[in-house]
């Protein structure tokens, strides 16, 4: 409807167009009579053609013509010649209609329908398309139809690529042509037809090609978006990979029933306090996958049957796909030293959301040592006041450094299958990086900076398994800082990217990570080994990332950042103590990832912005009864039986009911008045401390 | 490199549009403040007059829209509702009668009496009737038959056809699901595999195309995203790449383009702007409150401290826009505390009340484009300067404007601050329900009606 060229009506045209309207009305009345009485005489069919020439959007008339054609084809005296002439007539009518309005859905659809009958020559179609695509090179109907025609006549992708190339040479801003190029190449990659079609050969050529456009005019959008696709093609591996796991390969896990444990042979990095008689195995994939279960992942150990393991996806939604999967191994309460072997993907079934099969079977093993659990509840339940005060932290590394660093090495996951990166990918990226550095030395260009940042990040990510440092992270951080200043409209976007790169940098080497590891040591504590706290405070993070490197963390300090969301934190299954103090969390529902952290006991969300706004209004975004995903897992009785106060504090109830907290700090949020706190105490009967005050 | 000419056709067109738009902005900034605020004023009366005229009779040039007559009803009625005006009762009755005559004997609404039912016009007709509201309008919809029609349009692949024998695309999916949801007849049969179809249309750019293989497009991205929310499968989409894509569709003119490297067009103020309204809610909250319908509890306590000094507010908003701001509060607001952790006595400024949510697009720049470039002073809105007004663009420019004005708000129940509304505060339009694009209180009316029956 819109975008059609409009002419301002001239007075002398008015009379003519009014006459035209009269004519149309008459035509229409006549047409409906024919249509409703199923009259398909020559006269009647011609009349519908007239109607369509005036108004190609008259979809009822197109359907009438389809019925008429079917009627003819079913006549007893119909022969190949007459069929052809009937269908040729249709094509002619469509062509006339398209001249009137080449954005008519009905007309293009009718043409497809006629061709699908298989009696018409398809060769004319490309000629016709040439005409229309010259008139409007961005008409997506024409491009859709072109793809349809090329497929029907089995025209080779190479020929179509050539066509797209010609279109690009005519107008390199024509994004539809670039887009079609990407569609064609994707199809070729998928087919893997012929040696020269491999990405290795094609992509470097495509980079050369796109440079022409980008360097001719760096302000033109089309090239940049095509470049983004090329980059994606260069770096992505179709098949999902296991990025990391907890426990890591070759690690020793010590499970203790109490927070204090003996045995200096074990470093605090691998000791885990467990009061539930089980511990998690966490698999972290490089993209969301489905189909993780006891037949695709086998766990062999002396104390659990593989079939008993239940693998659960950890994602914000209830979907059955996730990057992170977890299963809990039950451990006997007696002394135990055992080896656990986990093999992933030896039998097929793990599949990415994009439909690619996990095809890099991998295996990891670790040792578990269980110290007899102290079941004495009186001892365990002593409310221990954990306070992340500055004076309670010690810089790590004063004692038994070597053993600690050794065990730390085990946290870094090495993929058994080396890497999928091949030399041509590195070469392509290195060349691009050089190229864009050159471009940026000539012109100052936001999208150029963003692209360079993406290239560098991709290069680092690819080389990571070999190098133990991210060579370019400083440069990437600088680019994003620049962009925040240059392009304040998209500040938050760059800020988020900046945060993630910063986290990747921090977690990239043990040296840098150890700088953020502190011993939590309260003077009164008699423990030989004190828990390790990872402190990522005061980094002005707006987003969390690098989870694959942080699966081992049990104590995490994220205070004094700018987090508005903690999406992804559900991957950190071992977390027992978390500080989100002084961030920008705006609602209780932002805490949802924490519901999946079953070991979380101590949580500090004080001094955020929870409650600054009145209640969330997603209720009217999700008004459909089918949309109540989160609510649907809820037991109805729970809602009914709970207190009236809970109904008024629905969000709090929904979020906190699954928590197993001992200690919560919520002061400094608008929501946290006395009334609200009393509700919290009701929702979490196990809570022992609230805002530093002991509860009865 | 030498094989490319210096300026492509696309670039020439773009330069021309930019010149036109920037000329308007330049003229505007050189005006005295009083004339500025006049130029930024939404010409409510003229718009209503233009719209009402369209409902009673249209010129012969509208022949080409003959198969889209319920659309004309919707564009006009929805625009009038956004302006908080009503059509007179006789006209309302006529409209209901007319739409009833478009309703097919086997369900669904056609482009006009005697034509065959079509999903797009069904959407338009249902939204029109919901916008009119009231028992007569709402009960005129034959929901059982309509459900059967939707089932008939459902293709084995999961997608929907626009009409019997018609094309399958994302538009068809959205209109079918939207109507079903609004009328409370959405069920598993209708939902089945729709998500797969939409998913197959998300392109590498992040946006959604009309059909698999095609390029990402603003209208389809809205339709696809809204559909996925309605069927509760939105998490299957790559939302971060979708956000990336839509963020970069806002151009230097302030308005949105529909596709990469296309010209700005006022109607995308809604198609793209509406995407932000949907994303905002998805991001800010993931939980759903099962509350008794009717009197929403979150409302009321925010007093409209907003009505005063509206003219000054308009200018303030504009200045902010000039400095390409909207984000500098964020930058200046960093806590410069040292690495101390347990500082209890920090001066926290979060209790100052209305902390608003930063929109992901430049809302004031878009409002400026709509008011200065899309608005025709004697009524109606348009694609861009140099084009003429029409009902389609009037509807979607105004819908986009309403979304903009509330883009800072997290809570839709309270009115936006004056600085969020460009121009005089009287420019404030009625809020819409972004999934269906009907005015919010009309949505609630329909919701109540259809949950009861």
TrEMBL record, chain A:
GO CC term, one of those recorded: Rab-protein geranylgeranyltransferase complex
SUPFAM superfamilies assigned to the protein according to its UniProt record, in alphabetical order: L domain-like (SSF52058), Protein prenylyltransferase (SSF48439)
Keyword field contains Protease: no
One GO molecular-function entry: Rab geranylgeranyltransferase activity
Start and end residues of each stretch annotated as Disordered: 1-20
One Pfam family from the record: PPTA
The protein's Enzyme Commission number: 2.5.1.60
EC class: transferase
Function as written in the Swiss-Prot or TrEMBL entry: Catalyzes the transfer of a geranyl-geranyl moiety from geranyl-geranyl pyrophosphate to cysteines occuring in specific C-terminal amino acid sequences.
Protein name stated in the entry: Geranylgeranyl transferase type-2 subunit alpha
From TrEMBL, chain B:
Record note on cofactor: Binds 1 zinc ion per subunit.
EC number: 2.5.1.58
Molecular function GO terms recorded: protein farnesyltransferase activity; zinc ion binding
Record's keyword annotation contains Zinc: yes
Enzyme class: transferase
Entry-linked Pfam families: Prenyltrans (PF00432)
GO BP of this protein: prenylation
Entry keyword Cell membrane: no
Occurrences of domain Prenyltransferase alpha-alpha toroid (ranges): 42-438
Cofactors demanded by this protein: Zn(2+)
Region of interest called Disordered, as start-end residue ranges on this chain: 290-335
Reactions it catalyzes: L-cysteinyl-[protein] + (2E,6E)-farnesyl diphosphate = S-(2E,6E)-farnesyl-L-cysteinyl-[protein] + diphosphate
Keyword terms of this UniProt record: Metal-binding, Prenyltransferase, Repeat, Transferase, Zinc
GO CC annotations, alphabetized: protein farnesyltransferase complex
Family: Belongs to the protein prenyltransferase subunit beta family.
Entry function: Catalyzes the transfer of a farnesyl moiety from farnesyl diphosphate to a cysteine at the fourth position from the C-terminus of several proteins. The beta subunit is responsible for peptide-binding.
Record-given protein name: Protein farnesyltransferase subunit beta
